[in-house]
Amino acid sequence: MELRGQGLVGKELKDAGDRTSHEFLMHALARHRPGDVVLSEEGADDRARLVAERVWIVDPVDGTREYSEPGRTDWAVHVALWEKGDLVAGAVSRPAAGVVHSTDNPLAGDSVDAGRIRLAVSRSRPPEFVSRLAEILHAELVPMGSAGVKAMSVVTGESDAYVHAGGQYEWDSAAPVAVARAAGLHTSRLDGSPLVYNQPNPWLPDLIICRPPVLAAIREGLDKL
Ligand SMILES: Nc1ncnc2c1ncn2[C@@H]1O[C@H](COP(=O)(O)O)[C@@H](OP(=O)(O)O)[C@H]1O
Ligand SMILES: [Mg+2]
């Protein structure tokens, strides 16, 4: 937040934000949880994570593009804890909005049943299939930056589902998925299989996060693509 007001713009601001947040998190985790391994978007992949019992999966700035655009609040800091096979805790912080969604306190809101399904989608690179899915479902697209912010929009009831495919890494979804699960939402891969973390290759290209009542409609829509 401090860096954003210091005159850096564009790539310089993105890189400085990523690096500063990464260093902050690495120091904090080394100090408070020295025995744990960290998988960060901005760090070298420490292969010790593949035999570790506890691994922190972090994205220091998710929605880096939005972070670099003055006044935007749709970017987030993701911190998730994976322990012995699954996510056990996580938080998605939105510093510019002044909110932290965590597995302890997801800040879940009631969703008004608007009739039309609202799909959260990337504002800068909406996957083509999501537009087709929206047509099939007569759904409304709600564009915003950051995987974490999109997932939290389902948690708060601003949208009904976040459906993504075509590319992403474990750090983009780990903390959002941990919080979404704590809020009682459905989380899975596009084919319905579970999202599995701390894999040798952290590429995790697709997901569905949705309110349970819309899952059947989304599945039917996906089948028709
Ligand atoms: N096709 C793709 N391949 C790789 N990463 C992708 C991707 N689409 C989205 N992402 C990542 O998902 C996050 C949210 O993207 P978007 O705001 O467009 O929905 C971004 O994380 P970062 O900002 O941490 O790089 C972005 O890099
Ligand atoms: Mg990210």
UniProtKB/TrEMBL annotation:
Q: Which PROSITE patterns match?
A: IMP_1
Q: Which domain of life is it from?
A: Bacteria
Sorted keywords for this record are: Magnesium, Metal-binding
State the protein's name: 3'(2'),5-bisphosphonucleoside 3'(2')-phosphohydrolase
Q: Which terms in the Gene Ontology molecular function aspect does this entry carry?
A: 3'(2'),5'-bisphosphate nucleotidase activity; metal ion binding
Residue sites binding Mg(2+) per the record:
E41, D59, D62, D172
- Provide the species name: Leekyejoonella antrihumi
> Matching CDD domains, A to Z?
CysQ (cd01638)
Task: List the GO biological process terms.
Answer: 3'-phosphoadenosine 5'-phosphosulfate metabolic process; sulfate assimilation
